Amino acid sequence: MKQLLTALFLALSTPLHAQVQGVMLDAPEVLPGFTFENELGESFTKDTLTGQWTIIMFGYLTCPDVCPFTLGNLEAAVSETGMRVRPDNVPKVVFISVDPARDAEWVSEYAKFFHPEFQSFTGTQDDINRLVEATDSFYRLTAPDAEGYYEVQHSSAVSVIAPDGTLRAKLQPPFDPGATAEFLARLQITYRRENS
Amino acid sequence: MMRSLLAACLLVPLPAWANGLLVSDPMVPMAPPGVMAHAAFLTLENTGMDPVSVVGVSSEGYRMAHIHRTVEVGGVATMTSIDVLEIAPGQTVTFAHGGLHVMLMHPKGPVGMDDSVPITFNLSDGTTLSFEAPVKHMAHGS
User: Does ipTM surpass 0.90 in this model?
Assistant: First the structure.
């Protein structure tokens, strides 16, 4: 109890700009198999995760506010992380569209607008649902209106996958670049300790 | 001196104003090519003596426009449409990330850097407030 109070005290007394930007999982989460693709013929599968740090974000291309803001901030956060970790440990950012019906035709264009190495994919509803569930994420397509227009609700947090392919952490908005980079660097140190 | 001052004034976009409602700092963040929805951000200030309501929005360059509010509940982001936005005398309403934005749907053509997006607010008394929102890169960082 005392520990909890101390933790609470520390959390409350920490200045806003240094607030925790993510949550490390108590135990790594093994992910199910999945295959996502884009119109360039590139693919993103469970095997892609091996040997690299990956940040997975779910969203949709018709998203005017949250998705561009998140990817813009992740770009800044990943650049910051590059100053703290070895080049091969800089996370790869992957955007998965949960709206394949509207986005499949041009999905590859989206993430690379924010950084040339960011990639975006989409896939079948089964693959989307499986990975969304395994990463404790959420999305929902709202009922279409008279013109067939629908909106998409989705988790604002993103998932951090370690080089062994397991889910290790969730990053939460506002994705302050410095604090997020600090969190990712600490996560990598923890990971190396556990695996050494 | 006077002439250069005048020239400088002409270079600065004039603030849009109607019924005491003042638009400042409008911008459309540059979006990835081909996306079907853009956002416009701005500040609206009611400098008049009476409340003013925005009851609609349109843009020539887009098939549809709405005022939307991003709401995050339990880590899930969702958008709600705002039909009437009342602004009290002296009140300033900011359209910014994570809150209000003008949702611009289905651009009729490509929208590139430094383009200007014309936007018109319809006010409850039947008047309109038109302004241009320049397309800019949105700054991210600590």
Answer: no
Q: Does B6 fall in a domain?
A: no
CATH code of B103's domain: 2.60.40.1890
Q: Which of A109, A149, A153 comes nearest B77 by C-beta?
A: A153
Going by C-alpha positions, the residue among A195, A196, A188 that lies closest to residue A88 is A188
Largest CA distance in chain B: 58
What residues in A contact B141, CB-CB < 8 Å?
A: 76, 177
> What are the C-alpha distances in Å from B79 to residues A64, A153, B50, B91, B101?
10, 8, 29, 23, 10
The answer to whether residue B9 scores a pLDDT higher than 60 is no
Average pLDDT of chain A to the nearest whole number: 89
Q: In the numeric block, which tokens belong to residue B9?
A: 């004034």
pLDDT in tens, A43-83: 999 999 999 999 999 999 989 899 999 999 999 999 999 99
Element (H, E) at A113: none
Q: Which two tokens stand for residue B26?
A: 């409008």
Torsion on CA atoms B7, B9, B11, B14, rounded to nearest 10: -150
B69 is in which domain, residue-wise?
35-132
Put simply, the answer to whether B103 touches A64 (Cβ < 8 Å) is yes
Closest to B60 measured CA to CA, from B5, B139, B130? B130
Question: What total number of domains does chain B contain?
Answer: 1
**Is B52 among the domain residues?**
yes
Q: Which domains does chain A have, with CATH numbers?
A: 21-195 (3.40.30.10)
Locate A173 and state its tokens: 């908005």
Supply the pTM of this predicted model: 0.85
Query: At residue B6, does pLDDT exceed 80?
Result: no
